[in-house]
Records
---
Amino acid sequence: MPYHDNLNPESEAHLKGPLFLNAMKTFHEAAKVINCDPNIVERLQRPRRCLTVSIPVRMDDQSVKVFTGYRVQYNSTLGPYKGGIRYHQNVDLSEVVGLAALMTFKNSVLGLPLGGAKGGICVDPTKLTRSEKQGLTRRYASEIAAFVGPTKDIPAPDVGTDPQTMAWFMDTYSQEQGGYAQPGVVTGKPVEIGGSLGRNHATGLGVIYVCERALEMKQMKMSGSRIAVQGFGNVGTFASKFAFERGARVVAVSDVSGGIFNGDGLNIPKLLEYVKQNGNIRNFPGSQVISNEQLLEVDCEALLPCALEGQIDSNNAEKIKAKIIVEGANGPVTSNATKILEKRGVFIAPDVIANGGGVIVSYFEWVQDITSFFWDESDVDTKLKGIILKAFDNVYKFKQEKNIDMRTAAMAASISRLEKAMLLRGLYPR
């Protein structure tokens, strides 16, 4: 079936963003592998609901600025919608649609009882004061409140947002829904108001669990392996920390200020302290300056792109020297680049599994909130490892059986679960 053969070019331009089209390319390839029902294909290539809201905010100088926010609810076949909220100056509807689609497929392949969604606001959060960011968050929460809730749609942090953002969101929702605490409306909250232990490091830890298993598939070990990490935000810092603790040589990292390299391995604990004091990694003692582009081409056993999407494409795929790529970010390797890298023997652990630690522990947090029973951090980490490695192993088995790449195998496993559920539920009204 041709993709979107009945599209109105103007009304459905949000379905033509590069992230979404890249996801759909993999989706259609995977659908062919499992001979997916064409009616299910038709339904899964479109989001169920796209919200666009205006967000007026009183700035500290008393002026009013109006920002644009989005919430895309892609599919709820398996459970309530679930996905983060992104604050970034490049956010637009097409990007949020792509991210929501990826969340749908991610939650499915991980075996979670959750659908997929994503939200975002077009804003540079670094240019907002704390009070301005709070005003922005509360008004956004109020605008989409009718469409979210513990049994409807459960947001979480993403790029540019954090536990404090979720605390403001939760409080706004709770005040507007009767005035009592409803912690289950969001995840990624501070522990003091219903957050889960282990949530802050979950995505980075999940990346390392997957990296360890991928290295094993290549007959290598984490200890002594050279690791390069693009992005030194939440995911990248924790991935670097856990890799270092397991004996890996983290030879390169990068953030918005650029990259640093040390062939003998960077001292990650000292680097983390340095970043706390200086705000970025620039001029870290004992390192040489490299660009983000150069970091991607570092000679290493494992490359962990933990920044933004589309970092490895057909233009630089041939230059990648890593033996393994573990996608800590959403969509950091394009579909075309995947094919080039596969031909070169580079093993790719796809984002829908590799960075699934965050949503897995978000699921744990939601369960704890609605049951009012909370777990120890060790329990959270252990349960995380079990779920993410089970998903990885299932997909790897699928890859071997079908002789396809891991990305296609992950998507095929995801679609297969969604297809079965959608056929069982049927079509409403009919």
---
Amino acid sequence: MPSVSKKQQKFMGIVRSIQKGEQPASKFSKSAQKAAKKMKKSSVKKYAKTKHDDLPIKKEERDYKDEYKKFQSSTKAKKYRAELNKYNRQKGTYGNGDGKDASHKGGKIVGFESQSKNRGRAEKSRLKKESLQENLLSFYQYMGDFYGKKGIYPDKKGRDLKVGDINKALAVYLKKYSKDQFTGDSLDRERVRDILIKMKKIDPQFKSREGVNENEKEKIFKYLVKKGDTPTDARYSVDKSYDFVKKAYKRANVAKKAEIISALSKFESVNEGREASIIQHHQRQLDALIQQYPDSYSRPYPIQTKIETLRNIIAVTRKKMGESISEGVSKSQAQTIMKQLGGRKFEMLMGVKSKGVGKDGLILHIGRNPKKISHIIIDIDRGKDLYNITFGKVFKYKFKVVKKLKGIGVEQMHDTIEKNTGLLTTFRKR
């Protein structure tokens, strides 16, 4: 993609300097800032590196008047005008100056409408075709970035994605979704992908790998942010709990799955804090992407965007860790509580599925029981050697508090838990 003029080469040099951080974006025009955000670094590099000695100062402008003259003198255009004139004579409207044109629909003249409306539609149709061509060129690259040999979801058989196959799938897609405008976005990509799978041009088993339910995951993420979660917390909660929720609640819609994931986000591992867990989780993703795409200039645009997002999440979380004040019980306090309850024996008898530390205290997700309690939350009664215990359950995909008790001593904890769950906590004599 070499530059076609000195003006374009200079412009791309500015865009490249913005992308590299050599110059602040605010110094340049909005068009340069926009191009720096949307264009791939590799493409900008090719434009900017073009030797400009032999280039014209400006790209040669099209002679639209000459093009229009040639088009109107063609046999097709003459036949079209003759048909319109004949229709106007039959209707007695030829040359009356009413400002109306005979209008076509489905290749047939169907009546009259204003000149501005009729000719405006033709211009929109022309612009739509040009836009479609531009979108198609970038769409081929977009599909290759995801499903090509070096894409995010490469074919297991090592097959490359051919432009001819994409065109065949597009033909089916444009016919099936004729009412939708083709823009080359992620929705178009996924629809074309599904057609290519039916055509046996893409490995159907890619669904077992990362990103299978990215559309639903993204909807859940947006739902959580809308409900008040920070983007960092929402992204972490979805990545951590989505697979479990998808299997456990197959028939739940997006809103219900989001509510469940939100409830589960309170339950973090006893072995590590929430912020540290977020950093580790996203750092692993970042390292994997950088290892797969070491050269920053040749990275696909979606990959570069994801890398920058991960870096921002890690930076924000580190800052949050420095500013946050510890709440609830600490890791060591949680371990002490578990020892007082009986440790591993207690977990086995209660059927503990998971345990975690949240702002509300030590959280235990227990097995089935006569009282239908799903979670027990144990918090320290500050200033006293006592505990506050909350019994709750998930009802209609929401966490509901069943009973909340305060000032429970260590010696009373077993009796209290047995009474409110119907399960045995020890093998002691009764």
---
Amino acid sequence: MLENVFHLKENHTDAKTEIMAGITTFMTMAYILAVNPNILSASGMDSEAVLIATALASFVGTALMALLANYPFALAPGMGLNAYFSYTVVLTMGYSWQLALMAVFVEGIIFIALSLTNVREGIFNAIPMTLKSAVSVGIGLFVAFVGLQNAKLIVNSDSTLVTYQHFKGETFHSIGVGAILALVGGYQLAKNTEKIKKLLSENIVSSVLSEVFDDVEYNAFGRISDKTLESAGMVFPFSHESMRGSDYVKGTYKGLNVELSDVELIHVTDYYDEELEQWKQTEEKVFQGQWLVCDFGKELVGEVHLSEGGRKLRKQHKNNSVEMENAAFNDRFLVTAENAEEAYYILTPHMMEYILSMAGKSGGDVYLSFLRGGKLHIAVQTGKDFFELGKSAAKVDELRQKFLRELRWFTDIIDELRVEETLYKKENDV
């Protein structure tokens, strides 16, 4: 029955693994059953009622995630908003908890509407990565602070506002022992959290990568090096001064060394804030998407670059731009090359039609660079990160297929270039 409902074998897992993961997940997040009633009761709400509501909401949310989406994710009320609800809206602003709860209900309806219309995704993508990271860190520190307070690991201090718990005196047998147990539980929580992350990574992302690449390595927090990216020589509409990235993949594809990751190229502008009387910086994303680097299989006399922009950029690059025979290709791509003959060598009529076709399926601007050292760079400006859940991926198997399609887009171009190279050689041998 479990196999029919959750497709365990298809997702490279079994009942024992999922049961242990479930227990671990429960132990990891069970703190919400104590913390949420404790925080919300400060607003005047009944702590026992909040406890029951927290447990029921967590059960229903987790069950729906399992039965409808087939994701091994547990859902529960989030930390942060509950503290804002009690300490700011009710205690500081003076609103009743009933009125504040009505505001939360209205906010939920608005949130659902934004999600259904893709506005939420657009807003999320518009937020700079630095702000996303800062928000996550800020909420994490706040939750940690609340948890340390409730565990009595930190206590009030008249001189420094907060201080650490003194594990001595009359309170040791009660508060002190509880604090020590909290430390032990926190250590186990950290270990189990890493296990969960590793399990999810291995079962979803790593298994998909293994289907496409050989000897594959995956690092969610790594990326292609600055030196490698700077060597590409692609022409972007604006300059960039810094680089970021994630989801680094390294492996081999049909004997070719391959690197792949999310990449962000950032244009930094300095300006003087007269009101604050100080220099500040603004960031603008020149490129956000996926970047692949692989062996091309042949040495070139000079480099050849394809960049989105076509005729718009051609005026800026008159000296090294190459006019191709395909008018549609020229409209979309700027071709720059040190040797025009080499551009014609690589970009045959068939190859140009193929690149145009693949560019139409990419979902964004496409950039290619054929380098002198035998390296090929393929970049797609999708405006989003790799290995993200799309709105069409409702189940794990659908998510896997989505990732496979995104990877195959890159590998199909590599395959076509290798076939084209073979055909070219045969034609010239005749």
---
Amino acid sequence: MIESYINIKLKIMLNFICNLFGFSSTSQVCIMDSQRKKIWYNIDKKTKSATVIKSPENEQYSGTVTIPNEIMYKDKFYIVTGIADDAFSNCMKLERVTIPKGVEMINKALFDSYSCKELVTIDVDRDNSNYCSYFGVLYNKSKTELKCFPRGKKGEFVIPNGVTEICDRAFAHAELESVIIPSSVKKIGNQAFLLCDNLSRVKIAKGVTEIGNYAFGYCDSLKSITIPESVTSIGEAFLFCNGLTNIEVEEDNLHYSSENGILFDKLKTHLICFPFERLGESYEIPEGVKVIDSYAFSENRDLTNVTMPDSLMKIEKSAFGGCVKLRDITIPANVTEIGDEAFLGCFDLTSVTSLNIVPPTIFKLSFGYDEDINIYVPAESVEKYKAAEGWSKFKNIKAIPYKHRVTGFKARSICERVFLKKTLPLQGE
């Protein structure tokens, strides 16, 4: 501890001496660009390089900003090689920026923040060996990766043929209304079109193989989308699309399918995504579905009743999270696991019926925070549920009523079937 303290003191003294005599390795300086606008830099005397930084005076870059290839400070030249991640944060009136030839790395989120809403053009020095600009849009040098689409561009955008990847967050927050994705594109990255509030039309050509997580998350104006036959991987791509009513999949796709606008895997064993704004208060999950994927029904505000098939084995994380009107539910006998937060935020949920005689694995928040929910289980399993991890927190674990019938459930409960078998005559008697 003493040695560490001494080292810290020595470093502070050395930095003070270096700054006093102008020997500091780095310094913050402010230099005017060609339009006589302030640009702040961190300069590194060892590498003779400079990085554009956010104004320490909380001034916002605005209008047109042209970053020079090199700057002069105290009669020495420094090559501009970097732009800090937050350099253009809160630049509400930034319209155009030019990136010099020496910049080596641009953070994928540099210009996609909510604040750069007026940005319409990103230019790049033609001699930059890492990046280029085409009609104001940022690409890698070979123009195979679309890096950043300026948020302020509006209307329709046709991605140039030859682009193979739409990078993570490339269009995030953009105000465009329509996008056409060519057959050359193979990958749509994570959050690629996140929070594109005005995006109402997306045309994906055959060729795309991967659609990342939140690729179209929060695209409130998007009502329908068609997945081409080439797609082999879809993440949680359509989360919180408030206006989405229909997901179609081309018939020849070998990995995915759709039924009535709902996204499944090809064999319909996984229910992947139930569109956010799909109309109707009730839905009967088809027999054969074994897994309800994470976030599949998340935030659906109209759904009051879901009928689950006997084939169901697993309900994944947040599958029904935020379904505020969902009421009584019945978990089929083959379900062995209910993921964390699976029913979190289901504020109208008052009772859960689990038909499995062995308590399914659940997590702390599988059914939210309410410990007063009525839990109905097979009579012979009441004590098992009361002792089981996760289930033991519930105060009201009871045997399934003798004549219990689940609202909207196509088949009678186990107990009711037994009762009827004993009391009703067989056909022909």
